[in-house]
Design a protein that fits this description.
Layout (H helix, E strand, L loop, with lengths): L2 H12 L4 E6 L5 E5 L9 H10 L3 E5 L2 E8 L4 E5 L3 H12 L3 E5 L15 E3 L7 H4 L5 E5 L4 H14 L3 E4 L3 H13 L4 H5 L14 H17 L8
Parallel strand pairs: 5-6, 5-8, 6-7, 8-9
Antiparallel strand pairs: 1-2, 1-4, 3-4
Helix pairs in contact: 3-8
């Protein structure tokens, strides 16, 4: 790998952007494909699929076999609300490979005793925007049921293009959320991408069951092709 290619690869990784190194197995020629250029690449569909799976491997091309070395950021999960669902979600998310963070300004809930081994920030989300750092490999689960805490991170996650944005609450609650967020400048298209009520519809009742439903929906959003259902 030449120095310029290595520099670009490292820069993309530091910025938490997906990138693929395509190496021709016949001759060793290499090129990088960044996430923002996938649609224009002859191997675009294959690379996009591997960005979703996170798996490297050999592919056949018009000029012979090539090896795709895929670099994707580790997925992150930001839970807004140090609630019972978050407590159940934390160990499951860790086992599934997510770097989880819990943000809640309510210090009575956001305590190390309730969230051992979890990055816990007992601040208003807007006051720690730099630490949250939403990006395309981050999922947001808004769980407080309090618009004063939930609305700002929801809007920011939509603007950042997070792969998943989910919010707790009934359809009536979500309707009121729509009014507030559209008034705050969120587009109708962006709002419609919110998963609400949050989690797969599995009839969940307990906080642990809801956490399972939420994590399953997050994994589906991360791994599945969003265009598949439209075909």
């Amino acid at each position: 790998m030449n120095l310029e290619t290595l520099k670009t690869l490292n820069a993309e990784r530091r910025a938490r952007r997906a990138v693929a190194l395509v190496t021709a197995l016949d001759g060793g020629a290499q090129r990088l494909v960044r996430a923002d250029a996938v649609d224009k690449d002859p191997l675009g569909a294959e690379i996009a699929a591997r960005f979703r799976s996170g798996r490297s491997g050999t592919v056949e091309t018009d000029t012979g076999p090539a090896f795709l070395t895929v670099h994707v950021p580790p997925p992150r999960l930001v839970a807004i609300g140090a609630v019972h669902i978050s407590q159940a979600l934390a160990p499951m998310a860790r086992l599934a490979g997510f770097d989880m963070m819990v943000v809640d300004p309510r210090t009575a809930f956001a305590t190390p005793e309730r969230f051992p081994d979890v990055r816990l920030i007992a601040e208003w989300p807007e006051d720690v925007a730099g630490e949250i750092a939403f990006d395309r490999y981050t999922a947001l689960a808004a769980l407080t049921h309090d618009p004063k805490i939930d609305d700002w991170p929801i809007a920011q996650a939509l603007d950042a293009g997070c792969f998943y944005v989910g919010a707790l609450g009934s359809r009536k609650t979500h309707g009121k959320r729509r009014e507030r967020l559209l008034e705050a400048g969120v587009s109708e298209a962006a709002f419609s991408s919110i998963h609400a009520p949050i989690g797969l519809d599995v009839g969940a009742q307990s906080p642990a069951e809801i956490a399972v439903a939420v994590l399953a929906e997050i994994v589906a959003a991360l791994r599945q092709d969003p265009e598949a259902e439209k075909r």
